[in-house]
Amino acid sequence: MKKVSIFAVILLALVSAGAATAAETQTLQIEGSTTVGPIVDAFAEAFKSNYPGLEITVKKTGSGDGAAALIDGRCDIATMSRFMKDKEFKTAVERGIFPVAHVVAMDGVCVVVHPSNPVTQLSTSQIRDIYEGKIENWKEVGGPDLPIVAISRDSSSGTYETFHELVMNKEEMGSKVEYVNSNPQAHARVKTTIGAIGYVGIGFLDANVKTLKVDDVLPSKQTIATGQYPVARPLFMFTSGYPKPGSMTYKFCTFYLTETGQEIIEAKGFVPVTNY
Amino acid sequence: MDKALLNEELEPAIGLKNQSLVLTPLQDIKGFLFHHLGRLFLFLITCTSVLLVLLIFFFVIRQALPFLTKFSLVEFLTTSSWYPEAGTPKFGALSLIVGSIYVTLAALIFAVPVGILAAIFLSDIVSLKIRDFIKPVIEILAAIPSVAYGFFAVLVLAPWMQTKWGFTTGTNALNASIILSIMALPTIISVAEDSISAVGRELREASYALGATRFETIVKVVMPAAHSGIIAAIVLGMMRAIGETMVVWMASGNAAQIPSPWWNLAQSVRTMTATIAGDMGETPKDTPHYWSLFAIGVVLLAMTFLLNIISEYFLASAKKKAGKS
Predict the structure, then answer these.
(1) Nearest alpha carbon to residue B293 among B307, B308, B305, B281
(2) What is the value of ipTM here, to two decimals?
(3) Hey, what domains does chain A have and what are their CATH numbers?
(4) Do B154 and A185 touch (CB under 8 A)?
């Protein structure tokens, strides 16, 4: 008897839930970058509580997939950690889709070393030489006589992409470079290895690692937002044409301007493009 | 008394009295169908696992084919620069293949002596009571998730190697090998122990009767008799190590290089499994990089398949021997 009643309650809940969504079904398809993923997830979470009838699907497979989905008309918003390539843009226009970019946040990549390391600043070309394996000892850049252990993120991560593009100029990394698969792991390796150099998102800086000045600029929210810090890039949402004001797509693409949106962006370790 | 009991026993049979012993055609067909359909059903269920293996082979090879037709296989297997995302991508998987073999063999150097000695101890030396306590504990080792081993490697073993042994980097081939050997131990111990225990009591008693000591009996009689099972245990442990992904991804450092000098375990290496797991995440579909990962998968499958055949061979001959004695 008890079982039956529980079953009935579940059934009733399901039916009522189904009725609620049927009342006002609106869908929002979002596809693209894994880097922008945490922001979009948190935005979607906020939207779900604000608009109960809204169904948001978020796919995080990579910037290229996002562009492809927008071109095919499979998504409303494509999230990308880079701008569209000419080829993607051309195909889109040929299919009658006019990509419009919305910069929602800035992503800064900070270069970190072990706290005991006396080196305080490096130039981008020095960092490049280190990761290419041309500089192998800290004494070559004004530090102690200590072999350098260069630590990189795996080549499929967004942080790697930023670093590879802005610091490495897309040059190959040396064969001695070690790879780790997450920001916390990169942080942990640098924290525990005296000769290590690594790079992490700005949200992962703390007293256990030492942040280096790059080209004489210390990474901070301000230097990243203003573009002074060299290893920073904008994160995009692309829509087909400028979304109709008031539409769900419009609300989502401009959510970064609201106070909640900015708070979310900061909480996820990125830098808002707005000052508040 | 006897009669009553007899009656009681016959009682249930009375119900059958009216039934003819000859089955009706319907019952006959029903029985026939039940028997054969049941067999067919069970056969199909057994087939699914075989089919799954074939499907895995099929799909991995199918995804790898575009790579094998567009890029040189010789270059893939003999050069060691792995830059799949570069402007002109280089797919030299030799450093990855060497990396996998390297950590696996190094893990075996640690795991085989320890595993076999432990197996001998458990089967021939220690009392049953203690053995029944130790064996489950060893098997717990196999139940620890590999991520947990990975955390241990990165957060405990790596800093320790750096501070105590003065290694430049703590995530290296040695670190991965040590963790892999711990993970391979339960497999090696339990298979080796089974095969050593399976050596008949007669052999041991005969050996003692001829005046051999326990050491002589173990080394000259028991071990040779159980050798095929022990080899199978080693090969199974090897398969465990070569297929392991999470731990090597976290502990080996993932630098795509062949250590120089070759015996330098303190350098970091990159294995095939770690490359597949690490790169698969955001590699766009149907690109050379994507296909190349499947090509690595084919190499890995071929290696484990070969090891599997070897272990099957030795396990079968171990069984034959056990049957004879």
Answers:
(1) B281
(2) 0.70
(3) 25-105+235-267 (3.40.190.10), 107-232 (3.40.190.10)
(4) yes
